[in-house]
Design a protein that fits this description.
The complex is a heterodimer of chains A (629) and B (199).
Chain A (H helix, E strand, L loop, with lengths): L1 H23 L1 H89 L4 H22 L4 H14 L7 H6 L5 H18 L3 H7 L2 H11 L30 H19 L11 H6 L11 E5 L18 E5 L5 E2 L27 H4 L9 H13 L13 H13 L12 H13 L8 H12 L3 H14 L2 H19 L7 H13 L8 H20 L2 H8 L22 H11 L7 H13 L15 H7 L5
Antiparallel strand pairs in A: 1-2, 2-3
Helix pairs in contact in A: 2-3, 2-22, 3-9, 4-23, 8-9, 12-14, 12-17, 13-14, 14-18, 15-16, 15-19, 16-22, 17-20, 18-19
Chain B lengths: L6 E8 L5 H9 L13 E9 L2 E9 L7 H10 L2 E7 L3 H18 L7 E6 L11 H11 L2 E4 L8 H11 L5 E2 L6 H17 L1
Parallel strand pairs in B: 1-3, 1-4, 4-5, 5-6
Antiparallel strand pairs in B: 2-3, 2-7
The chains are: A mainly alpha (629), B alpha/beta (199).
Function (chain B): Displays low GTPase activity and exists predominantly in the GTP-bound form.
Subcellular location (chain B): Cell membrane
InterPro entries (chain B): P-loop_NTPase, Small_GTP-bd, Small_GTPase, Small_GTPase_Ras-type
C-alpha cells in the first residue's frame, strides 16, 4: 500500500516536473504571438485604408474619363458637322468652277476662231478670263483660296520631314491631277531629248502665234513643240507635241498649255505661280488610270504579242514598246494599253529565294507590282461575271507557268490568251501567297489580328488605319489596289463572291501568319481570324484606298507649281500624312478612323482632324480651314 | 493522342466550289443550302458505332481554294480516312485532286489500308457534265480507292458514301447507326410490323 502511495506520489511529482518544464516557455511564446497578431492586424488595417483610397482615386479617374469621353464625342460630332458643311461647300464650289470653266472654254474658242492675229485683244480677253476665273473662285465658292493656301503651306512646311513628299502633294490641288501629271510628265521626259531645239522655238514664237498655230494645227498632223521659259524660276516646261497617235488628248493638252501661256504673259500679277490653269485640266479627256506609257517605235524583228489585242506583231512592221514597262503594242492599239504604266521591276527579281514584294514593285509610286496590276485589269475585264471568282482554282500547272512568265519573262504575256480566268486569279493568289512575307507583313500581323478582333467598329478601324499606315509602301499600295479590285468583285453579283466570301478566300493569302513557319496550332488559330481582317479591310471605303493605289491624284513626282489656285484632292496628301504620323501618339484612336475616312471621302483639307490629337502648332492651321467657308 | 482510340477522323478534300460542305452538311444535318459560302475549315462530329461501342466520327471540311500546303499536310496527317470530291461539271476539279492524292500518299506512305473515296458530286447537273462516270471510275481504280457519284442537292448517295467509307476501314468495325445496328433493325422491324398490321 505504502509502496503504491509512494509510487503514485513519485509519479505525480515527475508529472508535475514535466508540466513545469512544459509551462516554462509557453508564456513568452504566447506574448510573442499576441504581438504578432497585433502587427498583422495593423497591416491589414493599413492595407484596407490603402484599398479605400485607391478605390476613391479609381472612381475619380473613371468619372474624369467619362467626362473626357463625352467631350470627345462632342468634338467628333462637331467635326462631322464641319466636314459635312465643307463637303457641301466643296460640291458647290466644284459646280461653279465647272460653269466658269465652261464659259472660259467657250470664250477661248471664240477668240481663237474669230481673231486669229489679234494677239493684243486676245491677250487682254484671256487675262480678263483668268482673273475672272480666279475672282470667281474666290467669290463664288466661299473658299478663300489664297488664305487657305497659305494655311496649307504652313502646315506643309511644318510637316515636311514626313516621308511623303509634301511639296509634290501640294501641287495638285485639283482633282484632275492624273491629267495634270500627264501633261507634265511627258514634257519632262521629252524635254531632255528636245532641250536643244525647244527653247529657241519657244523664244521665237510670239505668244499669240503660238496659240493660233496650235489651233490651226489641230486638224493637221503637225509637230509643234513649245517650251515656256517661265518667270520666277518655275520651269513650267509645257512641251506640246501633236503626233498622229495622240490625237484628242494631245490637242487638248495643247490647248491647255496655250492658256497657260496667256496667263503667264498677261496676268502677271502672279509671277511666281506656275499657274497651270486648273479648269483647263478638268476637260482633258483622259482615261483614268494614272501614268501613261512611254512608247518608242521599233521595227519588228522577233514577233511578239500585242498586249491589248493579243495578235502578233508582224515582221518588218513598226511596233511600239514602252520604255518603262516594256509593254508591246501595235501603233493602232496603243490607246487600249492597260494603264497605268508600271515601270516594272518585271525583270528585276533576282534569282533566289529572298524576293520581297518591293523587288517586284516599281520604285515610283504607286508601288504596285506589274503582275498584280495586269492580273487585276484582266480579271476586271472579263472575270466579273464568273461564278466563284477567286474561289474556284485554276489548273495548277498553268498557274505556275503563267506566273513564271509574268515574273521572269522579259515581256508581258498577253493575258487574254489565257482562256481560264481562274488561272489568272490563281496566279494572283499564288503570287501573293508565296511572297516570302505576307502582304500584311510578319511584323504587323499581330496588330492586324488584334485590330480585327475588336468588336467596336470605330476602334477596330482606327487601329487598322494605323497598321496600314505602318505598312511598307509597296505592300500598302498593293493592298490598296487589291482592295479596290475586291470591292468591284464583291459588288458584282454574278460572282457570288460577297465580301465575306472573298475574305475567306483571301484571309490566308493576304494575312498569313506572324512567323515564316507557323506550327499547326498557330495555323488553326490564325485561320479563323484571317478572314475577319480582310473583311474589315474591305469595309474601308474605296476612296481611302485609291489614295494609295492611284496616287497620281496626289502625285509625288512633279515638284513644280507649288500652289495651283484650285485645291481639291491632293490637299489630302499633306494632311493625312501627319495623321498617320500622329496616330500612335493619340490616346484614343477611336475617332481617328472616322476622321481619316472622312478626310478621304470628303477630299478636302481637313481641318478639325487634329482636334483630338496632341496639341501642336499645326492645329491652328488645320483648325481654321473648315471655318473658311 | 488520347482521343485516338475514340475519334475517327474523316477529311474531305476537293477544289473550290465542288460541294464539299454541301455533302458534309447533307450528311450531318440533312439539309442543303443553296448559298455560296466558301469554307475556311469546319469540323462536324457525329457519334457512330465502332467495335461494338460508340465513337465519334469527326468530319473535317477543308477549304477548297487550297491555300497553304501546311494546312493540308496537317489535315492529312491527322485524318484516318479521306473523301476526295470533285464536281462532275468541272474537269478541272478532278485535276485538282491529283496533287492532294499525291500528298496523302506521301504523308501516309501507302494508301493500302487507308479508306479513300473518290466522289463525283453534283450528279444532278447532268446537263453540264464534263466528267463522265467512266473517267471517275478509271481514276479511282488507278488510285486504288472506291468511287461514287453523289448529289448533295438531291441527297443521292450521300449516306451511302459515308457508309462505304466506314466499311472500307478494316481496322475497326464501324457503322453509321448509333446504338449498334439495333436502331436500324428496330426501324425495319417497326416497318414490317406496320405493314403486317395493315395486312
Amino acid at each position: 500500500m505504502e509502496m503504491s502511495v509512494v509510487n503514485l506520489f513519485n509519479q505525480f511529482q515527475s508529472l508535475g516536473a514535466h508540466l513545469d518544464a512544459l509551462n516554462e516557455n509557453i508564456e513568452p511564446q504566447f506574448l510573442q504571438m499576441a504581438v504578432n497578431f497585433e502587427d498583422c492586424r495593423k497591416k491589414w488595417l493599413l492595407a484596407g485604408e490603402e484599398l479605400v483610397s485607391c478605390k476613391e482615386v479609381l472612381a475619380k479617374v473613371e468619372t474624369e474619363r467619362g467626362a473626357l469621353e463625352v467631350k470627345l464625342k462632342h468634338a467628333r460630332n462637331q467635326v462631322d458637322v464641319e466636314i459635312r458643311r465643307r463637303q457641301k461647300a466643296e460640291a458647290v464650289y466644284e459646280k461653279l468652277e465647272r460653269q466658269v470653266q465652261l464659259i472660259r472654254e467657250l470664250l477661248i474658242a471664240e477668240n481663237n476662231g474669230s481673231s486669229v492675229h489679234l494677239s493684243e485683244e486676245q491677250r487682254s480677253a484671256l487675262a480678263f478670263l483668268s482673273t475672272h476665273s480666279q475672282a470667281a473662285q474666290d467669290a463664288k465658292t466661299n473658299l478663300n483660296s489664297s488664305r487657305r493656301l497659305s494655311r496649307v503651306e504652313e502646315s506643309i512646311s511644318l510637316l515636311s520631314d514626313i516621308s511623303y513628299d509634301q511639296t509634290d502633294d501640294s501641287l495638285d490641288w485639283d482633282s484632275s491631277v492624273m491629267k495634270n501629271v500627264r501633261l507634265r510628265k511627258r514634257p519632262k521626259r521629252r524635254s531632255s531629248r528636245k532641250l536643244t531645239d525647244a527653247p529657241p522655238q519657244a523664244v521665237k514664237k510670239p505668244r499669240s502665234t503660238g496659240r493660233t498655230s496650235e489651233r490651226n494645227n489641230e486638224s493637221i498632223v503637225a509637230k509643234t513643240t513649245i517650251t515656256l521659259p517661265a518667270s520666277g524660276g518655275i520651269e513650267a516646261v509645257s512641251t506640246i507635241e501633236t503626233v498622229p497617235y495622240w490625237t484628242r488628248s494631245r490637242r487638248r493638252s495643247a490647248l491647255a498649255d496655250t492658256t497657260t501661256t496667256d496667263h503667264y504673259e498677261t496676268a502677271s500679277e502672279a509671277p511666281s505661280k506656275p499657274v497651270s490653269e486648273t479648269p483647263v485640266q478638268f476637260q482633258t479627256p483622259q482615261i483614268k488610270g494614272g501614268k501613261k506609257h512611254h512608247f518608242i517605235p521599233k521595227t519588228v524583228i522577233k514577233s511578239e504579242f500585242c498586249a491589248p489585242c493579243g495578235r502578233r506583231t508582224k515582221f518588218g512592221k513598226i511596233y511600239l514598246r514602252c520604255q518603262e514597262c516594256r509593254i508591246v503594242t501595235h501603233p493602232e492599239c496603243r490607246d487600249n494599253c492597260p494603264l497605268p504604266c508600271n515601270p516594272s521591276a518585271l525583270e528585276t527579281p533576282i534569282r533566289g529565294t529572298e524576293t520581297t514584294l518591293a523587288d517586284f514593285a516599281p520604285t515610283s509610286s504607286p508601288r504596285i507590282p506589274a503582275l498584280v496590276i495586269y492580273c487585276i485589269k484582266e480579271i476586271e475585264r472579263r472575270g466579273l461575271h464568273e461564278v466563284g471568282l477567286y474561289r474556284v482554282s485554276g489548273h495548277e500547272r498553268q498557274v505556275k507557268e503563267l506566273k513564271e512568265k509574268l515574273v521572269r519573262g522579259k515581256t508581258l504575256p498577253s493575258l487574254n490568251k489565257v482562256e481560264d480566268i481562274n488561272v489568272i486569279t490563281g496566279v494572283l493568289k499564288d503570287f501573293l501567297r508565296n511572297l516570302p512575307e505576307p502582304l500584311l507583313t510578319f511584323r504587323l500581323n499581330k496588330v492586324f489580328m488584334e485590330a480585327a478582333e475588336i468588336q467596336d467598329d470605330d476602334n477596330s478601324l482606327a487601329l487598322l488605319y494605323q497598321a496600314i499606315s505602318e505598312l511598307p509602301p509597296p505592300n500598302r499600295d498593293t493592298l490598296a489596289c487589291l482592295m479596290i479590285h475586291l470591292h468591284k468583285v464583291s459588288q458584282s453579283m454574278d460572282t457570288k463572291m460577297d465580301v465575306s466570301n472573298l475574305a475567306r478566300v483571301f484571309g490566308p493569302t493576304l494575312v498569313g501568319h506572324a512567323v515564316p513557319d507557323p506550327d499547326p496550332m498557330t495555323i488553326l488559330h490564325d485561320t479563323s481570324r484571317q478572314p475577319r481582317i480582310v473583311e474589315r479591310l474591305l469595309s474601308i471605303p474605296g476612296s481611302y484606298w485609291s489614295r494609295f493605289a492611284h496616287p497620281d491624284n496626289v502625285d509625288m513626282e512633279t515638284p513644280r507649281n507649288t500652289d495651283t489656285p484650285s485645291h481639291k484632292v491632293s490637299i489630302l496628301g499633306p494632311v493625312t500624312t501627319p495623321e498617320h504620323q500622329m496616330l500612335p501618339k493619340t490616346p484614343s484612336s477611336s475617332s481617328l478612323s472616322q476622321r481619316v475616312m472622312q478626310t478621304l471621302t470628303s477630299t478636302t483639307i481637313f481641318g478639325s482632324k487634329s482636334k483630338a490629337t496632341s496639341a501642336s502648332n499645326r492645329q491652328g492651321s488645320f483648325f481654321a480651314s473648315p471655318q473658311l467657308k | 493522342m488520347p482521343e485516338q482510340s475514340n475519334d475517327y477522323r474523316v477529311v474531305v478534300f476537293g477544289a473550290g466550289g465542288v460541294g464539299k460542305s454541301s455533302l458534309v452538311l447533307r450528311f450531318v444535318k440533312g439539309t442543303f443550302r443553296d448559298t455560296y459560302i466558301p469554307t475556311v475549315e469546319d469540323t462536324y462530329r457525329q457519334v457512330i458505332s465502332c467495335d461494338k461501342s460508340v465513337c465519334t466520327l469527326q468530319i473535317t471540311d477543308t477549304t477548297g481554294s487550297h491555300q497553304f500546303p501546311a494546312m493540308q499536310r496537317l489535315s492529312i496527317s491527322k485524318g484516318h480516312a479521306f473523301i476526295l470530291v470533285y464536281s462532275i461539271t468541272s474537269r478541272q476539279s478532278l485535276e485538282e485532286l491529283k496533287p492532294i492524292y499525291q500528298q496523302i500518299l506521301a504523308i501516309k506512305g501507302s494508301v493500302e489500308s487507308i479508306p479513300i473515296m473518290l466522289v463525283g458530286n453534283k450528279s444532278d447537273e447532268t446537263a453540264q457534265r464534263e466528267v463522265e462516270t467512266k473517267v471517275g471510275e478509271t481514276q479511282a481504280t488507278s488510285w486504288k480507292c472506291a468511287f461514287m457519284e453523289t448529289s448533295a442537292k438531291t441527297n443521292s448517295n450521300v449516306k451511302e458514301l459515308f457508309q462505304e467509307l466506314l466499311a472500307l476501314e478494316k481496322k475497326r468495325d464501324m457503322s453509321l447507326s448509333i446504338d449498334g445496328k439495333r436502331s436500324g433493325k428496330q426501324k425495319r422491324a417497326d416497318k414490317l410490323k406496320g405493314k403486317c398490321s395493315v395486312m
